Amino acid sequence: MQKRTGLFSLEFICICLLIFLAYCNLTVFYTLYLYLEQIGIAPGWRGFLIGSSSLSTIAFFLFASPYMEARNAPRWAVVGALLLVVCGWSYMYAHSVAAILSVRLLNGAAIYLLSASCMTLLVENIPPERSGQAFSFYSVALLLPYSIVPMAFDAAVPHLPSVAVGYRDMSLFLLPGLLMIHVISRGRRRAGPPAAPAGISFGEMWRNASEPRILVLLILNSLYIVTFSSLFFMAQGLFRSRGFSGVGYYFTIQMVCMMAIRLCGNNLFDSVPKVRLIRTSFVLSAASFLLASHSYGLTGLYASSLIMGVGMGLISPALYGLMFTIAEPRYKAVDSNLMQLSLQIGNFTGPLIGAWLMQRTGYEGLLAGDAGLCLAGVALCFLLTSRRVDRDGLAARA
């Protein structure tokens, strides 16, 4: 296949739009807990049913990643998109624990197929020297649904017969995604047949993942998501403990700041050493958590959100860009999908760790614990560039 030199090809744009539509069908379930309450699901089942989708996604990333290749990714993306449409319709008819569990597990599998396909195709479509910028724009496409969907869905739901109808309608937006998959597939055929890669076995994938440099980077990615998700799901209680009825603009400030940095940073992610950006992000995030721990007014809390937004704006493009740079050519797609696996693990374990800390030490202890995890991330950054781990200095130079 001919090497691409430009970043903003039609295929790259379609990949970003496709992952945007996929995550719209993920973020729409911010209402799922209340919906499960409305249809009479017992409280003890609600959290498990919500998390079961992530468990399904994690399982597929663990066991199916070696078999996801650029040549079959468009086909699996079609399957994933159609499954999400089926899931969207199924919520209208699933009202028992068993039925909801089946839909959630299928939902998680579909999210894997779409997100892993998009990542595999993304790795094939970006020039190595622009990896940081590419992952910056790609991550914006991932984040936009978190800002747009809750606002749009809140406005639409009062005019719908039920929340389930909204889930169905959101899934229909994936139908134009099938056209995007066709464009991506046609672009691959036009670029010429790719060199046939040697197959990667399950054992080879895990031996590669256990390579010290790769392993440290996966831990860093998961660690950062743990700190964010632990706060995300505890934020409502934190603000109420400080005398506020809701989180207000806390996450809006954070997301807007994060997206502004990723959109306006331009060549920052390919000109500044990536490990330095990651280390800076962890330092800023630790400062944000400590400021929030000692803030009892909105000014201090919103200031901590701003600092967190800067840190989050820097870290994901640097992490994914660094993995793309240090991964061996035949493992680039697999390692990028392992980064998504570590993200899913962080999303699943973060709320558990956050709830455990909060119940034992209060919200101040939770925030202090998150700051401590960020400082552990700083230490891991120094380990990543040490001679013991980074023997050829590639991570330090990237």
Q: Mind explaining what this structure looks like?
A:
By secondary structure, the chain is an all-alpha fold. It has two domains: 10-191, Up-down Bundle (Growth Hormone, Chain: A), CATH 1.20.1250; 202-397, MFS general substrate transporter like domains (Growth Hormone, Chain: A). It contains 17 helices and no strands. It has helices spanning 10-27, 32-38, 43-64, 73-90, 97-125, 131-156, 163-172, 175-191, 202-209, 212-232, 235-241, 250-264, 268-271, 274-293, 298-326, 332-384, 394-397. The radius of gyration is 21 Å and the shape is globular. The two termini are 25 Å apart. The mean pLDDT is 87.
Compact overview of the structure:
The chain is mainly α and 398 residues long.
Q: Layout of SSEs?
A:
Layout: H1 10-27, H2 32-38, H3 43-64, H4 73-90, H5 97-125, H6 131-156, H7 163-172, H8 175-191, H9 202-209, H10 212-232, H11 235-241, H12 250-264, H13 268-271, H14 274-293, H15 298-326, H16 332-384, H17 394-397
Helix pairs in contact: 1-5, 1-6, 1-8, 2-3, 3-5, 3-16, 4-5, 4-7, 4-8, 5-16, 6-12, 6-15, 10-15, 10-16, 12-15, 14-15, 14-16, 15-16
Structural class: mainly alpha
- CATH level-two architecture of the largest domain: Up-down Bundle
First CA to last CA: what distance? 25 Å
Secondary-structure element pattern, one letter each: HHHHHHHHHHHHHHHHH
What would CATH call the class of the largest domain?
A: Mainly Alpha
**What general outline do the C-alpha atoms trace?**
globular
CATH topology of the largest domain: Growth Hormone, Chain: A
Main sheet characteristics = none
Total number of β-strand segments? 0
Q: Return residue spans where pLDDT drops below 50 for at least 5 consecutive residues.
A: none
Number of helical runs? 17
Strand content: under 5%
Please state the average pLDDT score.
87
Estimate the helix proportion, in percent: over 70%
Question: What is the CA-atom radius of gyration, in angstroms?
Answer: 21 Å
What number of domains? 2
**CATH homologous superfamily caption of the largest domain:** MFS general substrate transporter like domains
